[in-house]
Predict the structure.
Amino acid sequence: MAESIRELFFGGPSARALVETIDPRRTFDDVVLPPDTLAALDHALQLIRKHDLIFREWGLGERHSTGLGLAFHFAGPPGTGKTICAEALAKGLNRQLLVVRYAEIESRWVGQTSKHVASVFRAAERQNAVLFFDEADAIAGRRFTSATAGYEREANATVNVLLQELERFNGVIIFATNLAASLDPAFERRIRTHILFGLPRSEERERIWRAQLHPRTPLADDVDFQALADEFPRSGGDIKNAVLKAAQLATLEPVPDQAKQIHQRHFERGMREVIASADVMAQSLFDDAGPVAGAALGLADRVEGLQGEIATMAERLERVESGQSKAIERVTAEQGQTASQTAALAAAAAALDRKLRLLHWVAVGGLVAALAALAAALLGSP
């Protein structure tokens, strides 16, 4: 309640509440990455360190008044090390890391979210900190080309402010996404370096398995990290969760605590539980048709329902248009207009309105048809 009152009368939460301030402890030694990704990160670090040389000593800052900041895009599946590397980058620069809190930034008041975005950038400038938008898809996604609903206009306005702040910002900012294509295309020219975080290869997975353990962790003689790496092509985040699950499973063995060890079977079961959890989150429906076909069936049902809703809405719009035309006729007649003038005015307004709405429904119908085709293709796949 107190936060709502603050937001209403004093312009929303403070900048401190909008970000999480982290004093970085992790370095690039704490993450296992492919050589090309590590090289790209090292190159990014060198770019930041040579920023003053380029824009001050070489005078390019006098030629270019905006876009002097260094924006980086970390793209890749979840659990591939993007967040750790953002912290390591800040550690290498001896700066704090400001992680944006989306739950605080998003506001139910019109225009307030954009103000929160501006406040975040001001906070990063004051602290000379690295600004980190984790899962940036939530705030920097593609803008709506035909914004009709209030939330669509608000989302577009937020992206516009974010782009403007990015142009003015002279510091270091990192956007992390699970899917690069989800970012609005306007970010492409404003981001200096795009770094792809792919799934680790077998030799890297083996190192990740080992890195999750402590020297005091009791391991049985049958543990084979290379076999685990070969059998489970998963991300570093999944491996971390599997190790913790394996440790929990080992503690349940019916032997004294001093004799308990983590065996290969514990690691294997831990990873299988991680994979099963991922399948649940993917909503694979667990039916005889298989996860892909099950998901396609669910999609087809939703598409069919959406088509029905669109048809119903179109009929309601037609009735509303008819009512509007009659209202126009009554009002203009009362103002002394002739019946022919009233009819012409109403017909022209209704025709224009119908054309605009028809274009909208054609676009929506095309999207629905594409989704239906996708569902049919998935159902037909083996």
